Amino acid sequence: MPSRNLSAIRRLLDEVGPVDPTGIEERVAKYGTRSVKKAAKVFGLNLAVSMVDLTTLEGKDTPGKVASLCQKALHPHQGLDCPTTAAVCVYPAMVKHAAKIVKGTEVKIASVATAFPSGQAPLKTRLAEVKAAVADGADEIDMVINRGAFLAGELSLVQDEIASVLEACGAATLKVILETSELETYDNIRAASFLAMQVLRPGDFIKTSTGKTSANATLGNNQVMLEAIRDFYLSTGTEIAMKPAGGIRTAKQALTFLIAVKETLGDAWLNNQRYRFGASGLLNDLLRQLVKEKTGCYQAPYHFSESASSY
């Protein structure tokens, strides 16, 4: 099995090129040295707000909690002229409750599916979950790939399953979660990115993580995926979007991730059609920074309504 895994991934990397880990780490270290101040900072903070997928993914979720989440997405903070978030993200059973509030607004309804976060369910079951979420009003589906199949070298199986989920989505946008911490190496992340992008449509996403493992989005794995998107676009003309998820909790982190996008993909990717943050815990810190830029004073965290836990 190990030789099959290595040979399959190696063949793909021979096509798309391997990753230079040292080069990646050196490049992302430089992003943190960039200075963003005054009007540029306010622009970046508002842009980040508009890119958040505001999320609740707990077993104790209720229609009331989802309703509160939707109101937060539509009106992030009184007294601030800031945009809505990009989407609310909920389990499939909660989609119909979100639809009552945000359907028809600028806020999209996203739903995790395909036996999130493990992906360990029969394909028939995973596809049924996708179809049910779309039927209830989901505009976007966040799916998880079969990491076990990928690591076993069954790349065609992984790609065929992504294609099947894409078909089940219909017109809904698909976000393919690689679960980068379980892929273990930058080479594997690059290979999985290309594997997904080869069957995706323009405007569909690749995504780092479920937010349910010990390691989630980092500047390093984000950079590997951004460069994969760039290289795929240059060779095919297909514009794939990107979503880092989990572990991005501060405005400073978000601005650094946006610097990475600008310097790797350019301004064309600096919008919520092509870049998202799966980090609901981030929103209140963005709002806190915006209030500080407006008033000159930091507000205590309790001045901001609760948002969902980080995802």
From TrEMBL:
Catalytic activity, EC: 4.1.2.4
Family: Belongs to the DeoC/FbaB aldolase family. DeoC type 2 subfamily.
First-level EC class: lyase
Taxonomic lineage from the root: Bacteria, Pseudomonadati, Verrucomicrobiota, Verrucomicrobiia, Verrucomicrobiales
UniProt organism field: Luteolibacter pohnpeiensis
Regions that span the bilayer: none
Designated gene of the protein: deoC
InterPro entries: Aldolase_TIM, DeoC, DeoC/FbaB/LacD_aldolase
Any one GO molecular-function label of the UniProt entry: deoxyribose-phosphate aldolase activity
Alphabetized SUPFAM superfamilies for the sequence: Aldolase (SSF51569)
Pathway: Carbohydrate degradation; 2-deoxy-D-ribose 1-phosphate degradation; D-glyceraldehyde 3-phosphate and acetaldehyde from 2-deoxy-alpha-D-ribose 1-phosphate: step 2/2
Domain of life according to the entry: Bacteria
Protein's UniProt keywords contain Hydrolase: no
One Pfam family recorded for the sequence: DeoC
Keywords tagged on the record: Lyase, Schiff base
Catalytic function, reaction form: 2-deoxy-D-ribose 5-phosphate = D-glyceraldehyde 3-phosphate + acetaldehyde
NCBIfam families: deoC
UniProt-recorded name of the protein: Deoxyribose-phosphate aldolase
GO biological process, one term: carbohydrate catabolic process
Any one GO CC term of the record: cytoplasm
